[in-house]
Amino acid sequence: MDREQLAHWQAADALFDQWLDLDEDAREAWLAAVDAPDPVRRRLGQLVAAHRAAEAPRPPATDALAGRRLGDWSLEEEIGRGGMAIVYRARRDQGIARQHAALKILTLGTLGSDGAGRFRREAGILARLNHPHITALVDSGVADDGTCWLAMPLVDGQRIDHWCQSQAPDARAIVQLCLQVCDAVAYAHRNLVIHRDLKPSNVLVEAGGHVRLLDFGIAQFADGGGERTQTVWRALTPGYAAPEQLRGDPPGTAMDVYGLGALLHRLLTGRTPQAAAAGGETTRPSLLVRAASDAYHRHYVPLKSDLDRVLLKALAEEPEQRYATADALADDLRRWLDGRPVLAQPPGAGYRLRKFILRNKGAVAAGVLLAASLAGGVGATLWQAGQARREAEIARIQERRATAARDFMVQLFEANDPNASIDGPLTARDLLDQGAHRMSGAFGDTPALRAEMLVLLGDLYRRIQELDAAEPLLAEGIALAGETGDPVLVIHARLGKGLLDAAADRHLEALAEFDAVERALEGLGQVPGDRHGQLVMHRSRALTDVGKVPEAVAYAEAALARARSEPALPPEAMFFYLRALAAALSVQGHEQREEALLEEALALQSLDKLAPTERLPVHASLAGAALGRGDLEAALERSSEALALARRVYLPDHPARASLLDLHGIILTHLARFDEAVEAITESIAIREASRSQGSSLAAAYNNLALALDNAERDAEAEPHMIRAMELAGEVFGRDDPRYAIAVANLGNLYRQSGRHDEAEALLDQGLRMRREMLGPDHPYVAIGLVQMARLRLRQGRAAEALVLAGQASAIYHDAEHKDPRRLASTDEVRAVALAALGRVDEAETLFEQAIADARAAGVDNGVEWPRVMAARAELYARHRPAHAKAAVEDALRAHLEIYGESHPGTLRMHELAATLR
Length: 918
Hints:
mainly alpha, Phosphorylase Kinase, domain 1, Transferase(Phosphotransferase), domain 1, 6-stranded antiparallel β-sheet, 3-stranded antiparallel β-sheet, 11 strands, 6% strand, globular
């Protein structure tokens, strides 16, 4: 849609709103007399016709489906219809229980467009969402004749605009209704769903004022591709659509922020935003209803006092000028309800003072009389002088606290002076133990300083993995900080407690602390900011640790968008926001986006203010991203740089070195440098065991060690480590977590390779079933499980089943956002071997040659998978293509020697195969 067409639709929509406001008997004459260009008149006519069609009585024939069964449901009577679907009241009987639902049926006219695709997507979206203000999915299916249907709870409610018209609520009640919609939309965004069609007809109000958000028919997964907005133009409603939505831009959460603003605008002014702007003079909502004769005049005063600002920010032309998230909009509306300053305008001193007076009218009445007698200049001078005195006093307090803290730490380190210590140098734990002992009676007359030192010591204990010692110090520090009333100190203390909870694998408790810190930072106006950026990093990591990866990505993405909207944000703060989103994306497998964000983070200027310990994880993450996209040499270079820096920065037994050793070992395994990999990961485990590291890290390290040994075909050594990894994963993550499922399947794969097929089948089946249930049928981790099971089926002589399983895996990999050429080559190897076993040798040969050509073109002929692919091809030629067998075996032997080395069992097998051909 070009700009001219967009302008025509917007003008038509504004006129359509005017037409709706007229009495029924005046509409026809107005329509005939309206002065508008022909393109606008045509579009206005379409809107009027669509409205009349929707309002027209339904013909009796529409109940023709009554009595028909769809799945377990019997259709009763039609209760609604739209452009895409008809909705029936339906019933199903289950024993003595009877259930009613609204059954949404795709119309035949929609099948020709992508209606069926949108219908399936709506089912997928509703299945993902479970929220009290979102209509849930009860059931869905496709009938034998291709009829698509969804069953949803039968909601007995009114459209929100009709409800407001009949109930005449005040502005506060309307805002409270809209907050329920905001909460539903924010929840959808956290689950990576964008509604894209927020309007009154999609929001119902039930008895008691409970709101339900309906119709995700043109909604979009934020983490997938899908339709651009242009392709769903006919389905959306122009009066409530964001400008970029009408332009056909890709979907984003800012569209829904605009939609929420447009909905609230309509309920408070009776007009859509486009209609309000049609006059061209102003778009301030309060001015639309200031006339005493206006039907919405009762909202004039509330709009004028701050709601104007909130609406204008939500409805900003450019997405980046709106609220960063639906939660941010909701927070500002709650501030308005509480009589606090809204954040939609820069809160100057006079503005804050007005809000204080409104909240405390009685307490300041006498002060107002006195203030009225002061001249403006004198008042300003007194204000500035008072501010200066307060700032000077704060500075003196901070200086005294800093001096006392410094003296305390110097006294601790004096104990490590050879002249002061009888038993020799002390460890970090010894120093901290001395500090904790001295704190028992220190700073009793200065609660704020005592709280600060307790939190500092607790945090230092956490950093050396002495979590039990950290716990009581942080608990007392939090209690004291709360008593001081110093919000900055409370933030510092609760952040320390959250980090301790995360280190102890108490991730839900950590999230509660991080949420409290975020609210406090918001209250101080420090969002976005340096401290908030670090918090976003910790909170998004905690979300991924409890399996809420989509929520972590959505949260970090919204935080980064908000940070980008603040031009004065220092680079070191932006650094943390970029890192947070990159880390969340890495868990989802979006390596390309992750890498771009990390490179942007490293390219920021003024990063010299950040310690090497802050920059180090970015280098490590870049190594992981390079590994994810299959560039093993780049991954090794990055991880080697990171490990060298870590050895300069950290002591040999520091847990941060363990993490980098683990990553380095994984990359070495992929490069088939197994002995080096085992050495690196073994060192990592030793550090973690010695420091009593968190179980999640140990589980991953044992898994990685077992995989390195497994790839080296040292199965007997690998087995105890793999069992340990599975046990730890079950203890730490729970047996309903994808990471436990992966550990189970990895043990099954090890048993397959050692010929223990019955044990392997049970574990591989369990791991695959769990991954499907937890991650969905199309996740790349499911594809890995399918290939593992296919290899077992080949060992069992069940080639036909193996071919089906490997084919399913190949389809998943090809549909993935990032196509991993290494996994594709490995999957094609299994498919080709299965084809050959079924006697389809020509197809197998063609598939092998294509897979090898693709892998070489992608530059992935240097990793651990490559010799296996070449070996399988050589064995095929040795059996079925003797004329070409010698060359194929020589190619395979060369690959084994270059990648595995002379002593690997696979290389020895290739030597034996070559000998049979001489």
